[in-house]
């Protein structure tokens, strides 16, 4: 059975690892300097902590980290792979802009490492469900086949390195941007006394949107800190010439404010929970 | 039967007039300096063009214009009402921020005109359907009763003058902001070669959102020019302290770019139509 290495054992990384392990694979990881919580989650998923150099014993190395860490992880992998005769391919699965992906790939120049651009669309794998979908571009088909054989849903994109990242940016821009819009306007309604009438009007005239917001906003609270860099990546992806880049710089600031609130007073969380009728949480 | 005056005979103003006329009311309007198209639309709806001073013969004067014109219309009405013993009440139904609404109301100080804050949520009235919903705040109940009696769906808000405007800002921020997000990301997908995979992924994993975008984006083309000022009003409503104000300044620029394209080369319209499978239009 194949041997994978996954750098990053957050909610997504550890759940992807568990899916692979459940299909018989071994999943190595590197945990030096990580928090107790991360170490516990990695072990619970059945990942095997190893030293950094041993990561290269895998058939494939995956990076599943917050976007702001993607380049650092690539540099680590380029470093440990340097000088190897047949280093394992490297798949970046992070929510980064195509340009960031190209800058990341440049770290491997002359190293002999095959670099693939991947993007995960959907939440972490859950037993009994086939998602998320992992898009891969720049692939010779062999590396991603290994993932497919171990229970992951893979779609290959014809485009060049960066095509999967572009898809992820566009998808996240719509999906997470929508949560940002809803968050901003529910908070504004709350402070201007229009919360009740807004909620009533949404549930009546836009029931799909109302349902999606009521579910997605509480799901966002613990992820807001991670979405900050993701929104900045989307702004970079759109580029200075596109007026929509401004939209996502605003989104980054909004999620940054939410992230501070989630870790701090939870005043905004309380306002949002009240409008959407969410029972609230104590953690 | 009551006598109304409606200033503004765009798609919304003329359709509201027609609903009132179909219920037996007379609807006066003021058309000096308007385009041939506007004059034709007003007459087709059965509106009666009068001189500006005669507008005050109505039982109620409504303003239904693009947000950037709302203050100018209020000044006209304050001017023609000045010196009257019992001037008709004035209802602003435009998509303006609560602060703009308060600035607008200030134009009537000392005039004896009762000023109401209204907001229209939903598209123009269509025969056989009960919508849109017209929210009214700051109402003594009598003026809006007249509208209700002539076939409009009215909801009174308890809040002060500005509460209806706040509701409209929040609702439009979600509803039109969503169209802006979709427009921005579909265009980005188009120029980065990810259009096909994005459309496939959306229709599979977010079918509600996909359907709504496919319908709402073409509907937006002819309205984009009007949405520019509306997005600016939302940014003002949110205020400088709110990072989400930046989101709506970006939205205003995006719709401004769309409006230029709609009137010009229609290159962006073509890209959007191609992705969403819209047959396109020649107008």
From TrEMBL, chains A, B:
Domain 6-phosphogluconate dehydrogenase NADP-binding positions: 4-142
Domain Phosphogluconate dehydrogenase NAD-binding putative C-terminal: 189-257
Pfam family, one: NAD_binding_2
SUPFAM superfamilies: 6-phosphogluconate dehydrogenase C-terminal domain-like, NAD(P)-binding Rossmann-fold domains
Residues making up the signal peptide according to the UniProt record: none
Protein name: NAD(P)-dependent oxidoreductase
């Amino acid at each position: 059975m194949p041997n994978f290495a996954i750098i990053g054992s957050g909610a997504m990384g550890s759940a992807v690892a568990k899916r692979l392990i459940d299909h018989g694979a071994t999943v190595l990881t590197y945990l030096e300097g990580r928090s107790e919580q991360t170490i516990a989650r990695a072990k619970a998923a059945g990942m095997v902590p190893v030293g950094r150099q041993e990561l290269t014993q895998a058939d494939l190395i995956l990076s599943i980290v917050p976007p702001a860490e993607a380049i650092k992880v690539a540099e680590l992998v380029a470093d440990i792979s340097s000088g190897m005769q047949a280093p394992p391919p490297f798949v970046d699965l992070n929510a980064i802009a195509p340009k960031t992906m190209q800058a990341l790939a440049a770290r491997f120049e002359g190293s002999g490492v095959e670099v693939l651009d991947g993007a995960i669309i959907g939440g972490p794998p859950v037993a009994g469900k086939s998602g998320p979908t992992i898009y891969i571009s720049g692939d010779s088909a062999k590396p991603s086949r290994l993932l497919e054989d171990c229970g992951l849903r893979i779609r290959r994109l014809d485009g060049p390195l960066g095509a999967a990242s572009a898809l992820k940016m566009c998808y996240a821009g719509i999906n997470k941007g929508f949560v940002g819009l809803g968050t901003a306007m529910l908070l504004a309604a709350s402070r201007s006394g229009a919360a009740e009438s807004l909620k009533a009007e949404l549930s009546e005239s836009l029931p799909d949107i109302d349902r999606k917001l009521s579910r997605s906003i509480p799901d966002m609270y613990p992820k807001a800190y991670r979405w900050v860099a993701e929104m900045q990546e989307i702004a970079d992806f759109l580029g200075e010439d596109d007026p929509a880049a401004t939209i996502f710089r605003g989104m980054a600031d909004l999620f940054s404010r939410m992230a501070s609130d989630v870790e701090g007073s939870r005043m905004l969380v309380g306002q949002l929970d009240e409008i959407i009728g969410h029972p609230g949480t104590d953690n």
